[in-house]
Amino acid sequence: MQVHGEHESVVIALFSTGTISAKEFKRRFPREFEKIKGYTNGADFTQKMIDNIVNDLGGIDWEIENGKYTGYALSDEVKQMHLSRLSDEFKSEIMHLIENETKKGPTQEELILMCIDIDELDYEQKQFVEKTQQTSQMSSHTTSSEYGKYAIGWIRYIKTDNTLQVTEVQSDILAARSMCDSTIYKAEARRQGLGDHYLAEVARMCDSMQRYTERVYEDSIAMIFLLAAKEGLSVEMLTSKDKEDSPIHVYEDLPKSMGMIKGNSDIERRKVWKYQPPHLS
């Protein structure tokens, strides 16, 4: 399934109006019009023009998998097995991550996994994602339940009667790539005798997946936009204030680039990113 990343609000707006004059589209959707005004040159939106715009803005053909989030569930034995191998400095860092990620009991959150068919990859990439998936499973992270599929990333959200609230956008490959540049992780790799070449190789393989990773976050949010539009719901997304241990660009720059604006949550007392799509019947 193809979605349209930071342009999904444009596509939803076009689908909601159908053929329409450029002037009227600009009046109803000023932010979306600014993103595609180069296509129109003042001309009205015909069905052919709309089809061309939608095709041009497409990207990865994702395999979508839906699920329920039940919380991280690392047993004490698994935690100790991992921690016993680490230096004190690195152990402290990992414990901090575990404490922030651990959930007690099931939650009401739902999942959308952005998956690819492993057969699309070359031999080296297949070996890499298989190892990455094993590591994710050991950490009780989300992985695809379907044979031959690999989850490049996922999005977690809460669904209420009126709202879909995004609580997490994540990718283990992007997380691994970030670790390769971490001073603490580099020191730990050296302590374990892996050397700089190990993280350099991990970084190289992560970079080889860039075709997917450069779109996975925005396409994940685009899936929520589309789902909300089909069900007549609004969208919220947590801000960096609530996600202090996550990359700031994911919870600040990205939602802003996708046309979201900050406002009061309809679910709880906090500031969130908000988007109200037109209803697609």
Condensed summary:
By secondary structure, the protein is an alpha+beta fold.
General description of the model:
- With 281 residues, the chain is α+β, with helices and mostly antiparallel strands.
- The protein folds into two domains: 1-59, no CATH class; 61-275, no CATH class.
- The chain contains twelve helices and seven strands.
- The chain has helices at residues 8-17, 22-28, 30-40, 47-56, 76-83, 88-101, 123-138, 172-179, 183-191, 195-208, 210-231, 248-257; strands spanning 63-68, 110-117, 149-159, 163-170, 234-237, 261-264, 271-275.
- Strands 1-2-3-4-5-7-6 form a seven-stranded mixed β-sheet.
- A hairpin with a 6-residue loop joins strand 6 (261-264) and strand 7.
- Helix 9 (183-191) packs across helix 10 (195-208).
- The longest helix has 22 residues, at 210-231.
- It is globular and about 65 Å long.
- The two termini are 19 Å apart.
- The relative contact order is 0.14.
- Mean pLDDT is 86; it is low at 102-106.
| Rg result | 21 Å
SS strand fraction: 15-25%
Structural class assignment: alpha+beta
Which strand order do you get reading across the main beta sheet?
Answer: 1-2-3-4-5-7-6
Instruction: Tell me how many strands there are.
Output: 7
What is the string of SSEs from the N terminus onward? Answer: HHHHEHHEHEEHHHHEHEE
Instruction: Report the principal-axis shape.
Output: globular
Biggest sheet layout = 7 strands, mixed
N/C terminus separation: 19 Å
Number of helical runs? 12
